[in-house]
């Protein structure tokens, strides 16, 4: 890339002007204080990055700098799934962000990931949370390709706004349908780096991710059976007459066969509406915050969900004073919601992304796949099978044999590492949203991932 001095003076002035504008807008995005916020010693920013000027479209972000030594800590992006669910409401305010709403105030999350990194949460695609498109036709055809492209543009422009993070070590993390978002974004970043190194990508971590439609979905039957949620006869018919990937495929094509209808009615009846499929150990009440994977579990029969926990995140983010503090606005919607009702192309679920993880690994970028072991939506058995198969395909030898790892004085889960670059880990007792249900163990896993070291083999 030419230096500014080598460019025509008018172009140099233009670039300098743009840089000044973006950096001044970063100051405008600084959050003075969130309503009900406890005293903190780190900076927060929130605002918009325009990803399309012709048909104005912008993605909303929330950025919490590291609690200590932010200039020495890496930059970590977090994406939630759905598709169509909010990284602000789910990730930042319910899982691994610095605060959680409680009544009219925010309480400190002592296991926030910004203890270890500068955390950037992106509401993507447009139409999710506070992100928007003024061209409403965009919402009728949202898909993986458009989402990946917009995410790439977002990052390029975010780095113009925050140039001090341009060369910082960068990690991308997320869960659920982010198993599509993140590998597809990583592929574009790797391709972009071939011309000029724009991204200092150092690793990606995927929690309970959708990587392969058939493997991930069809591991559900064994999980149900092994946890006593379905009977032997139901297990046999669920694996022989209509497996879950066939049912979902038929459901999103609006052509559910009679046999799949009967099988799913039986499975739904036996598993019961009083068990949370995202954490089979959870009691009856579930929060709508935990519904980011609704697309991964379509209902064949009417199954009302008893939400008996007040959704304090939704209440908090719908407050006008909170929206002003976040520099956020609602566009076309009267209320902020956890998950969008946009018309996302559900057939994209069937696109495998496990091969893209192979591309990332072959590029020398470490990959971690982790699973909350109480999740039946994307069970650990499918993820473990996929990672093992990818390691074999890439001819990676086992460098850390399957073993337990520890957090504090308890077993945190199990792990296996291939070629010191591809890892699989479970988080013991965790749900689909692992940082929500097992915050301390999730933080321990995250810390080891950033430091590039094996998970602890002994008590700490």
Looking at this structure, what is the CATH superfamily of the largest domain?
Alpha/Beta hydrolase fold, catalytic domain
Q: Main β-sheet, in a few words? A: 11 strands, mixed
The CATH topology of the largest domain is given as Rossmann fold
Low-confidence stretches: 1-16, 300-310
**How many strands?**
13
CATH class of the largest domain: Alpha Beta
Question: Strand fraction band?
Answer: 15-25%
Give Rg in angstroms.
Answer: 22 Å
GO biological process, one term: proteolysis
EC number: 3.4.16.-
Subcellular location: Secreted
Enzyme class: hydrolase
Give the arrangement of secondary structure elements.
Elements: H1 9-28, E1 44-52, E2 57-64, E3 75-79, H2 87-95, E4 99-102, E5 105-108, E6 118-123, E7 132-133, H3 144-161, E8 170-175, H4 178-193, E9 201-207, H5 213-218, H6 220-226, H7 232-240, H8 244-252, H9 258-271, H10 312-317, H11 320-325, H12 354-362, E10 367-372, H13 380-393, E11 398-407, E12 410-418, E13 422-427, H14 434-437, H15 439-451
Parallel strand pairs: 3-6, 3-8, 8-9, 9-10, 10-13
Antiparallel strand pairs: 1-2, 2-6, 2-7, 4-5, 11-12, 12-13
Helix pairs in contact: 3-4, 4-12, 6-7, 12-13
